[in-house]
């Protein structure tokens, strides 16, 4: 789940109590908590109670975008392309295939854009929360919500927001990247709850105009614990660029520290030289000179 963020703000994404509800739900804007700063490898990812997952023998799931619940300013072809890319990012790392269904009503996972009234998604009754404590008061900034694995397979995106498939071309300050939110919701549909790793796809915060579509080691470890690894997947190959970038960054930091140390040493030597030249010579030595 993800929520809308105003320009310069950070939006919080939280789930309803999954033990009572069949959906993940996005809430309003809140400050980023300081204690959610864990960005270390495997471990921060979480699952829903019971670790639900899809158990199709053929490991194939179909999806479709609603022909009627659409985003007015986005052409259907652009929406479908964004969804195709979002599903492919998960298919790269697990032995599951995601195929676009010809018929919307026959798809395992149904995606649509809906308006929210009083914190509730219009037309989304089939996966509304059963949590009595979820009164919708905190849903003003909701971006989307989704079902858990095999619980009707639906992703509902808030139609009132400024969805975009190209942040470079769409300069609206409140633009929300469709693929980023879709990829996050797909993670929920597959069985992942939120992660405490800030770089994770499943981290419960996102900023306006932020594009976050690449899975991290945290996302990969989590989803592979549920479904296993794609036989063609290699951690080394998949994260090669990330590893190289990190090594390059470490080298830059090392050089920066070395330059700082060298500058300090040169400054110390110069200071010592000045001090030495300013020490008055003994009277006896002056006479000899």
TrEMBL record:
InterPro entries reported in the protein's UniProt record: M10A_MMP, MetalloPept_cat_dom_sf, Pept_M10_metallopeptidase, Pept_M10A, Peptidase_Metallo
Keyword Amino-acid biosynthesis assigned: no
Annotated catalytic residues: 185
Keywords linked to the UniProt accession: Calcium, Hydrolase, Metal-binding, Protease, Zinc
Segments of skewed composition (Low complexity): 15-31
Binding-site residues, Zn(2+) 1: 130, 145, 156
Binding site for Ca(2+) 3: 135-136
Coiled coil: none
Protein name in UniProt: Os10g0558125 protein
GO BP term, example: extracellular matrix organization
Transmembrane regions: none
Species annotation: Oryza sativa subsp. japonica
Cofactor annotation remark: Can bind about 5 Ca(2+) ions per subunit.
Superkingdom per UniProt: Eukaryota
This protein's GO CC annotations: extracellular matrix
Stretches for region Disordered: 15-51
Molecular function GO terms recorded: metalloendopeptidase activity; zinc ion binding
Binding site for Ca(2+) 2: 108
Taxonomic path: Eukaryota, Viridiplantae, Streptophyta, Embryophyta, Tracheophyta
Binding site for Zn(2+) 2: 184, 188, 194, 202
Peptidase metallopeptidase domain span: 50-229
Cofactors named for this entry: Ca(2+); Zn(2+)
Pfam families found in the cross-reference section: Peptidase_M10 (PF00413)
């Amino acid at each position: 789940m993800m929520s809308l963020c105003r320009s310069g703000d950070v939006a919080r994404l939280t789930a309803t109590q999954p033990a009572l509800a069949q959906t993940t739900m996005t809430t309003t804007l809140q400050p980023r908590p300081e204690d959610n700063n864990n960005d270390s490898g495997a471990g921060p990812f979480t699952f829903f109670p019971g670790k639900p997952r899809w158990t199709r023998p053929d490991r194939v799931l179909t999806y479709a975008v609603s022909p009627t619940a659409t985003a007015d300013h986005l052409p259907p072809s652009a929406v479908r392309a964004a969804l195709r890319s979002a599903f492919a990012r998960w298919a790269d790392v697990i032995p599951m295939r995601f195929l676009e269904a010809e018929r919307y009503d026959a798809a395992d996972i149904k995606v649509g854009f809906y308006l929210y009234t009083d914190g509730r998604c219009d037309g989304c009754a089939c996966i509304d929360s059963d949590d009595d404590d979820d009164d919708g008061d905190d849903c003003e900034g909701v971006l989307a919500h989704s079902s858990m694995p095999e619980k009707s397979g639906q992703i509902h995106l808030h139609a009132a927001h400024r969805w975009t498939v190209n942040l470079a071309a769409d300069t609206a300050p409140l633009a929300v990247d469709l693929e980023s939110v879709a990829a996050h919701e797909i993670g929920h549909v597959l069985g992942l709850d939120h992660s405490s790793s800030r770089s994770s796809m499943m981290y419960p915060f996102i900023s306006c105009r932020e594009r976050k579509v690449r899975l991290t080691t945290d996302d990969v470890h989590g989803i592979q614990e549920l479904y296993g690894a794609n036989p063609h997947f290699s951690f080394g190959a998949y994260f090669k660029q990330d590893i190289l970038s990190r090594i390059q960054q470490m080298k830059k930091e090392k050089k920066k520290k070395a330059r700082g140390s060298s500058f300090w040493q040169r400054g110390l030597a110069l200071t010592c030289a000045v001090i030495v030249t300013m020490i008055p010579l003994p009277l006896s030595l002056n006479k000899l000179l």
